[in-house]
Amino acid sequence: MKLNADLQEMLQEKSEIIFKYLVKIGAAPSDAEDIIQEALYKFILYMDSIDSNKAYSWLFRVSLNRYYDLCRKQKRNVRVSMENVELVDESLLPEEFIQQDERNKEIQDLLNQLTPLHKQLLLLKYDLELSYQEIAEMLDLNIGTLKTYLYRARESFKQKYRREQTKNDGSQR
């Protein structure tokens, strides 16, 4: 079975996004590559029975489920990773760099306290910088629903952030 050029290009582009997401949630790059390769293989096997409008969401879900299976098998939790994130500004003073690193760890901890869906949405939107349309396609949601879920995710994050700030302000006195 031969893939047409458009489908092949779409699969390549979407696989790269899914790879970045898997690494972001803690997959080793080699595991992420294996997961993507396995998902693409399954896609090619079953592509006749997959709705072409939902190919991206199918690929994402199969990849994510495979990663969750791997985590269960290795008995580890899915946690947001700030590794491989290049947020270092060369012009920062050492103190500023340390503060930035602490802030990144705080954000990572807060994200890991969110529901899996909220964490997923925030990472896709703000870390991978995907558009609403791309996320909606990836998760097989309509845009209105996605915006509602993303709003709730932001509110949940803000609430946890404020609670953490209040707790920290109280303990510093």
Provide key terms for this protein.
173 residues, 73% helix
What does this structure look like?
This protein is mostly helical. The protein is built from 7 helices and no strands. Helix 1 packs antiparallel against helix 2, helix 1 runs parallel beside helix 3 and helix 5 packs across helix 7. The radius of gyration is 18 Å and the shape is elongated. About 5% of the residues have low confidence.
List the helices and strands and how they pair.
Blueprint (H helix, E strand, L loop, with lengths): L4 H20 L4 H18 L8 H20 L19 H20 L2 H12 L4 H8 L3 H29 L2
Helix pairs in contact: 1-2, 1-3, 2-3, 5-7
Anisotropy-based shape? elongated
Helix content: over 70%
Q: Output mean pLDDT.
A: 84
Helix and strand content put the structural class at mainly alpha
- How many angstroms separate the termini? 68 Å
Annotation, overall tally of beta strands: 0
Number of helices: 7
Query: Which regions are unreliable across 5 or more consecutive residues at pLDDT < 50?
Result: 82-89
What's the main sheet like?
none
Computed Rg: 18 Å
SSE order: HHHHHHH
Share of β-strand residues: under 5%
